[in-house]
Amino acid sequence: MDALEILRLNLLSPMVLAFFLGVAARLLKSDLAFPEALYTALSIYLLFAIGFKGGVELSKTPFLVVLLPALATLLLGLLRPLTGYFLARRALRVSRVDASALAAHYGSVSAVTFLAALTFAQALGERPEGFLPTLVALLEVPGIVVALLLGKRGGGNLHEALREVLTGKSVVLLLGGLVVGALSGERGMERVKPFFVDPFYGALTLFLLDMGMVAASRLSVLRQVGFRLVLYGTLLPLLHGALGVYLGHLVGLSPGGAMVLGAMAASSSYIAAPAAVRIALPEANPSLYLGASLAVTFPFNLVLGIPIYHALAKAIGG
Description:
This protein is an all-alpha fold. It is built from 15 helices and no strands. Helix 4 (63-92) packs antiparallel against helix 5, helix 4 (63-92) packs antiparallel against helix 12 and helix 12 packs parallel to helix 15 (286-317). The longest helix is centred in the last third of the chain and has 32 residues, at 286-317. The radius of gyration is 18 Å and the shape is globular. It starts with a helix and ends with a helix. The mean pLDDT is 85.
């Protein structure tokens, strides 16, 4: 399958099309809106399902097989906020606090981008390693912690922010789902499969429809901050994505698995990181970090980034 066909397949997937429907609805000032309760229910369902399915796969995977990918993921969790911070300081010339807030978002991970990459790989007939959701959970926390430490000299409550991250719904649902899945195994999966497997992608499509509307509502920040934020929100994910693909290849992941790890590394958070930053760095500009994460990096990864990381993984891993 050539690059254009892969790009076409990605652009015409129900998830990507639903995202752009959400963007169009917001730009056309449609009265379409998701109730807050539905958004919350969808995010809980998706996060728990990711963790649960990862736990089931983990129950069948020898520890030594997971060890090296887990160490590579922790390394990414340390490197990504550092590059995000120093690039923000040098290229965007923002304050230390705003650079730290951006680093927290680009040091954490987007579970929806992970799902989109996983779906993309499976649509191409590839079989990424089943324990990859474990790596999502591992990548979620370290990046936020490192970024908050970088900006902490300016005040705020680091202890409260860490508590918010560790007890926030994304970490609790991912890690909790992993434990439930690992303990219940295949027999447990058989009992809940009709709820957590087949409806999963329909729920993801609805979630991306809502994300399209949220992303469109942040487009105005691009006019305020300028083109440098667009460059930051696209070049930094490409750097992180290439690093993730390369490390994935080094630790023995399949090309599909390396691509998904690259997409995870290239993603930016919009669930856990905003909550932590709001507490630890209250003076940081939310339009800056939410605009970059939601209006630039998320759609970039969804449309172009994932096929690019796939091409890199195929070029490196064959």
